[in-house]
Amino acid sequence: MPSRTRRRDAAAALPELVAAVVPQWRRVADSVGELPADRLVAPSPLPGWTVGDLAMHVGWSATALTRALAPAESLPATDPPRPAVPRPVSAVDYLTGTGARAESIADTARVLAAATGPAGLRERLAAEVSAAAAALARVTDDGDPVVATPNGPMLLTEFLRTRAVEAVVHGLDLGVEPLRPALKVATKLFAELFAHRVPGHTVELRVPPFVAVQVVEGPRHTRGTPPNVVEAGPVAFVLLCAGRLAWGDAVADGRISASGERADLSGYLPLL
Question: In which domain, by residue range, is 244 found?
């Protein structure tokens, strides 16, 4: 049984996450809804993906949430069975596994986009976002329920954090500036993933105004100005972590500042 403190924390976190993710999905869907059909079949900035493929992937990300919240008996027979004794994975673990699923994820988006076609894609994306928002609105549990996701059982709040990353990153791929609440969630999760992948206390990684973490093995800094500091704006940091922005380019154009002999983090990037 979750503790009373855990239920209280989840009760506070869940509405904040819903309020971050759903408007971001809607912003992406609204932007895609304004695109002409010929733009949907054009190449996107993400190699190997059309604009329509990316839009369909955002919709599928929302549908994964809808399915996660659906009663088990209502799911298609082809869906994998839900575990009898869930062992929830974290949002960090979920993102860590995305690399191994990258080709499968891309193939699913391409197949769905081709089957839907440009004429129906905009309407389908809007419908998938609306369905996910409605499913979240029906959540009445005062705790943090475990839900079935494409990468295993997760706490709903943890799964929503991954949905924020998807919506922010692919929104940027589509030229959609992220809303502040969703950007905050995505930035903090990427910082958490960075600290998990590159643990240590030698470099202070700052992403104002949202988060600061210490990373990289080596001497621990205890007082005064840290000798190794990396600072980035949230959008640049997200693009860097997601492999959309090269470290050297970001440093050269000032989107990232790095000081100290241990402050070059290029060898640890991208995270996805």
Answer: 198-268
